[in-house]
Design goal:
Blueprint (H helix, E strand, L loop, with lengths): L4 H6 L7 E4 L3 E5 L9 E5 L12 H19 L3 E5 L10 E6 L1
Antiparallel strand pairs: 1-2, 2-3, 3-5, 4-5
The protein binds guanosine-5'-monophosphate (5GP) and zinc ion.
The site of zinc ion has 6 residues, from α1.
């Protein structure tokens, strides 16, 4: 998907504040955060919906790793997990810390 903004972030073609990454996934700060530390985790490969991601269980294990990073960094009361995917057509999970 050459015109997908999250594919461009995954390929480092446009800047993002990267929180964590490995070979297949990358986590970065939301550009319009709902709270301090609002983070998006995406597969580097393009999928339209979270439902479509290969090995979705592994994806959510990574989401939990990033949640632990947010816990240590910001010490929120809890971290909301949100999956919408209406605005950007590349699978992504929101982690929104609550204070
Ligand atoms: P959703 O598709 O789940 O409704 O929301 C998409 C999310 O992506 C929004 O929270 C929006 O602020 C975020 N977003 C949209 N474009 C960019 C961008 O270019 N960079 C970053 N870091 N976040 C973005
Ligand atoms: Zn994409």
């Amino acid at each position: 998907m050459s015109d997908c903004i999250f594919c461009k972030i995954a390929k480092k073609e446009i800047p993002a504040e990267i929180v964590w990454e490995d070979e297949n996934f990358i986590a970065f700060s939301d550009i319009n955060p709902l709270s301090k530390g609002h983070t998006l985790i995406i597969p580097k490969k393009h999928f339209r919906w979270v439902w479509d991601v290969e090995n979705i269980g592994n994806y959510f294990e990574k989401v939990r790793e990033v949640k632990k990073i947010l816990d240590e960094k910001y010490q929120p009361v809890f971290v909301e997990l949100k999956v919408l995917g209406i605005d950007v057509p590349h699978a992504h999970v929101h982690l929104v810390p609550h204070y």
